[in-house]
Amino acid sequence: MFTKFKMAWSTLMLSSMAVLPQALAEVRHEIQFPDIPGYQTIVADFHTHTVFSDGKVWPTVRMDEAWREGIDAIAITDHIEYLPHKKYMIEDHNASYQVALPTAQQKNIMLIKGTEITRETPPGHFNAVFIKDVNPIKTPEFMDAVKAAVDQGGFVFWNHPTWKGREKGDWKDIHETLYQEKLLGGIEVLNGGTYYPDAHKWCMDKGLTMLGNSDIHSPSLRHKSEPGEHRALTLVFVKEFTQDGIKEALHEQRTAAWGQNKIIGHKEHLGPLFDASIVVSPPHHKAGKSLWVEIKNNSHLTYNLKRTGDKGPLAITLDADSKVLVRIEAGIGKNDLRLKYKVENAFVGPEEALAVTLTIPR
Fold first, then answer.
1. DSSP string, 118-164
2. What is the mean pLDDT of each run of 10 residues along the chain (362 residues)?
3. Cα separation values, 176 from 169, 181, 199, Å
4. 91: which residues sit within 8 A by CB, 6+ positions away?
5. CA 1 to each of CA 4, 7, 8, 9: distance values in angstroms, whole numbers, following the listed order
6. Distance in angstroms between the alpha carbons of the first and the last residue of the chain
7. Per DSSP, what are the bridge partners of residue 114?
8. Domains of the chain: which residue ranges?
């Protein structure tokens, strides 16, 4: 009896050991956005913090979070000037990157070297990414710091511009100087949970890149990026998924900011993204003048449509990663049916929604 029990226990233990590695495997939940013609769509966060400035986590934790949440590329952008934990840290502004890099490589996360140049508003806070060495960027003069970052091949963008109010965060002479001297590459139109329509307008008027970033300081408690619950992120439309490929896309304004169930970008990118995301099936049922059609959304964004033409439902909600059933009063005909809508949560301008067409094959 004892021998049988011991053999059974041994078998159970061996079975448990056999599945243990699988049980402990880390799970990554991908963020679903399709590629668009000519470009691969990747998801990035260019604004995060660790204990090496005023964040609350070790740099490796940021890599674990990025893997878990389906993020492809991430920059740690610790402040140069604001170091509340410096009593316990070495004063090397490259340290957070160096600590995080081995974990990023293990997780297959692209880690971009960056920093935040933090000054009173105005001029405000600015991130520099794709830099080589943070330490020379720490200079007393703001313009010298920005120039030092750009001289290294860095891409500089303005963070949360009106976070201290429109009067302080308005476009001022210093920003015009940065723009005219080609030192400013972009602006955050989304930061955390806040959308900045003024920044959106400036990007449109001046040809600057739109970014959406988390500016995360605390630990992320998300197990995955849900369509309606995720950090603010930037979609980057790259020719190749390399550091140079991402930087080239930023310089060419091939981005979209995604957060708060809205997406913000240029129509030449948001239009193809919508078209690649939405699959309209031929009608599967007809009764009189009514057609029943399935529409599938293969993206992580719920699209809210409002009719602008004379056919189709007044409003359609295309839920993320889902299929919806739509009844259409179409009449009799053999030609494809084209329904005109605007996407109320896809902004190609501060007050301008993306115009789209749903084509119903007959």
1. E-PTTT-EEEEES-S-SGGG--SSHHHHHHHHHHTT-EEEE-STTTT
2. 40 42 68 97 98 96 97 97 78 94 98 97 97 97 98 98 93 98 98 96 98 98 90 98 98 97 97 98 91 96 97 96 92 80 97 96 83
3. 13, 8, 14
4. 83
5. 5, 10, 11, 12
6. 72
7. 129
8. 27-263, 272-360
Length in residues, the chain: 362
Q: How far apart are CA 162 and CA 319, in angstroms?
A: 32
Instruction: Tell me if the bond preceding 122 is cis, omega within 30° of 0.
Output: yes
CA distances from 256 to 61, 199, 210, 266, 335 (A): 26, 13, 6, 7, 35
Task: Give which of 58, 79, 69, 182 is closest to 125, Cα–Cα.
Answer: 79
Q: Which two tokens stand for residue 321?
A: 């990663």
CB atoms within 10 A of CB 28: 16
Element (H, E) at 115: strand 110-118
Question: Is 27-263's fold the same as 272-360's?
Answer: no
Out of 1.10.10.60, 3.30.70.3400, 3.20.20.140, 3.30.930.10, select the CATH number for domain 27-263: 3.20.20.140
Give the tokens for residue 24.
Answer: 């402990």
Q: Which CATH number fits domain 272-360: 2.60.40.3090, 3.40.220.10, 1.20.1260.10, 3.40.50.300?
A: 2.60.40.3090
Written as six digits, the tokens of 93 are 């502004």
Question: Which conformational region is residue 92 in: left (phi greater than 0), alpha (psi within -120 to 50 degrees), or beta?
Answer: beta
Model pTM score: 0.91
